[in-house]
Design a protein that fits this description.
The protein is α+β, with helices and mostly antiparallel strands. The longest helix is centred in the middle third of the chain and has 15 residues, at about 65-75. It has four helices and five strands; from the N terminus they run βααββββαα. It has a five-stranded antiparallel sheet, with helices on one face. It has helices spanning about 30-40, 65-75, 155-160, 170-175, and strands spanning about 20-25, 85-95, 105-115, 120-130, 135-145. The chain starts with 17 loop residues before the first strand and ends in a 5-residue tail after the last helix. A hairpin with a 2-residue loop joins strand 4 and strand 5 (about 135-145). About 20% of the residues lie in helices and about 30% in strands. The protein is globular, with a radius of gyration of 18 Å.
Length: about 180
Amino acid sequence: MIPLLNVPESTRPEGWEIWYDDAYEVSAEVVRGFARAVRDPHVPYGARGILPADTPVPATLLAAPMFDAASALVSRSIPQCNLSRIVHAAQQFTVRRPLRIGQRLSFGARLASHVVKASTDIIVIDVTAYADGDPHVEAVITIAHSASAGPEVDLDAVADRIMLAGTGPSDSDAYTAGAGPV
């Protein structure tokens, strides 16, 4: 089992291989920015002023921090993991309790399964976001990794084909080519 982060036993639920305490805050501006990016019809992202406290928070807002929690398990499950060979195959959310603006979230992550088929690792990771000690949003993340795919597999081109309009550049080569030194 992967050791948990340095969190007192009394503050974290059991069963998680990795625990990130107070890892994310659901702020009104984060909700507004996310809603604008995905054109969420339930959030008044174009309105001026402070969002109402009862503004619905999209569960998919947590996709990035949940994927970050899952990434730690992927890197431990696949030695010498080549990140360019990872494909985010699927993600499923279950909302147990609605999120609210102002909540501070903690995340638990555990490896649900890891199988290898045709030289491809298929990893399923459970991640749950907790607020006020209770589970609010659960995700099942499926990731595929192929260390043996030949050069004829252009994962960048595959990513470009599955990228949805509005979620990022439609041509990642052109996007990264225009990026200057960091």
